[in-house]
Amino acid sequence: MALLKITAALLLVCAARLGAQTAKASEAQVKAVFLFNFAQFVDWPPEAVPDSQAPLVIGILGEDPFGDFLDATVRGERRGSRPFAIRRYQRVGDIKGCDILFINRSAGDPEEILARLKNRPILTVSDAERFAERGGMIRFVTDRGRIRLQINPVSAEAAHLTISSKLLRVAEVITPPGR
Amino acid sequence: MADMRTVAAATMWVFTLGLIGFVPPGLAQQPDSAVSAEALKQLSIEQLMDLQVTSVSKRPERLSQTASAIQVITQQDIRRSGAASLAEALRLASNLQVAQLDSRQWAISARGFNGTAANKLLVLIDGRTVYTPLFSGVFWDVQELPLADIDRIEVISGPGATLWGANAVNGVINVITKDAKDTQGLLLSGGGGTEQHGFGTVRYGAALGSSLRARVYGRGFDRDATAFPSGQDAADDWHLEQGGFRMDWEASSASHATLQGDLYDGRIAQDSGGDIAVTGRNVIAKWSRTLSERSSLTAQLYYDRTHRDIPRLFGEDLDTYDAELQHSTRLGARHDLVWGLGYRNINDRTLVGADSTIAFLPTQVAREWFTGFVQDEIALVPNRLHVTLGTKIEHNDYTGFEIQPSGRVSWRLASSGLLWAAVSRALRTPSRIDRELFAPAKPPFLFSGGPNFHSEEELAYELGYRYRQGSLALSVATFYSRYHGLRSLEQVNPPNPVPLVIGNGQDGESYGGEVTAEYWLTSRWRVHAGYTELRVHVWPNPGSTDKSRGATESQAPDRQFLLQSWVDLPGHLGFAAGFRAIDDINHQLVPAYAELNATIIWQPTAHLDLSLVGQNLLHDQHREFGAAASPTRRDIQRGAYGAVAWRF
User: Fold this and answer.
1) How close B167 comes to chain A (CA, Å)?
2) Which of A21, A32, A144 sits opposite B383 (nearest CB)?
3) ipTM of the complex
4) The model's pTM
């Protein structure tokens, strides 16, 4: 009996340690996995998909906060028949064939960037202040050590993107009125 | 047998726990990169959202959740307002009273007690305290920096003494500049007009390695004089040249170091007596490190030097050395603890010339401050009901130990609202003016500092509500404060009007409310309104001969209203307008006034900004502050300027 109890206790403690291990994920890592997951919850218009084998491109505008973690996340993954690819852009003019774009705060004024991307079928994601209110599609909000999502479905619609209700359900929906 | 089993079990327990407890740290705490992408990919969106994450700096986002009356001015707000100086940008915060006296002097305060030497506000630029120990106020003319480098300005009205420290009696202004990584490349900007004669800034940012970024800047401006009521030029035009740098080093994902500095040199014309000369320099070193997902440490050192020579009035050289350490840690599931230590040393040398009209005696002093604070945010119901208790303990050379505690409650309501309440004790500790100012400069003195002047005490009660849902953000803050031992001027031999000595002979109270609302009418049109209602009453204590009822201590309007509108137009055009209506200033014969600023910005490409700014458009000239019949009274004139900013 005692041995059983000890074994169980040992297992429990080890499990707790493992749990703690996962809990040590950094903000950037969790955001990288979110970016990857978004591909499963968004539908692009047919004209945005040149062919069914074309890679689904996750772009980073400005400084890359993910290191090689985003590359590791998408390695070997597919969305349907499309493999993933990561591209890094220094300026908005360089962006071509991008499906999901993470806009780093360092890339400049998000409103200017969004204005230049106007209505292109790109899922725009950032952690910049009021990003969703200012016309961005998804904003990461770090709140008491957890990452929440704010989604502006109107902006997505304007770019002919469809965001799954499964994603909308867990996010805070931001809708600027008068549109 | 049972005993044996118990002993064996206990031994195994101890062994097991010991084993796990003594796993080398390197094994138990894998570096961040060891968390595998595979493991995280197994989690659902909900699980990802529930995961605790670590980040190097959590404080900025946490600050907006604190139970206090906070307003944040962003870089974009500043740019669109057309503000040409830091003081002008502060007009965007409706919880501040801001009045311009002449071309260089401003009276800025929160919750009343405004004046040219307003002394109940703490102003920080990147953690460097800029109020002068001479009178606990701010020389706004030298608080200049390239406005394009500002990330945000946090403006807190109400006591912030527990966390922020001395002088945060009625408010804190915290100016935070951008990380060097956010100002890479070349920026050339400049322009000119009627009141802003000319200005220009060159800034260059580059990477000095994979994790080290830097920027340098140089700037200068030339500002026009204000006008006498007759419309005649007041001859207080001035110019200032300034340069500086900032380096940010991401030493690792968990530690960040910053080194920055500025220097400036300016000349301000006067009607008579010769130009005022101002020079200064400062350097700040900051280091922060995330020790674990539950704790972080910040250390900061700075040195600041200012020199000011006002011919026929006084001259001053001030050196400030400051060191601060702050540690925040989470204890258990419910306690967020922050504590810190600080030390400040000043060496202040004032000059008494043959023609000086006032003197600070002794002319040279060295003073020290020791501070410690501790604050615990307790999650009574996590993410719902939080209580924050804390206190600051300070030792200064004038009054010894002083204690400034506060208690705050925040209650998050289901409907995106936050209700908060606070009780605080805050002190305005003596500055040199209270004890060491004498006039004339040589005996017999008609006016002298109070040798026994002690701290002014405030007990503040605040109640507020913040709401944010979709495109509407609303904030209401109400307050009631009692003051004890406010500064007074006492007759030494009543009823003889002079000599006078400074005392603590007045008590007072203040109450009011601050309401702000921000609303996005459409995704391209944002409107921000702010209204503040304020009453300050000051009365003499028994035995006091000061019958001014606060006329020398508080000069603020009963109410003010601000309305700002920003709209993005087609063709890369933006239009911003800022309207303000300020009631008459109590204890002054300054009438109520309304003014309007407007900005048109055209951004033909992402690299180029062209803007046209109109300031104080409604009147040729208007008065904001100052005695009615004073020969020194200045009016602020209508102005217009154009500016170009080119980034590449």
Assistant:
1) 29
2) A144
3) 0.79
4) 0.76
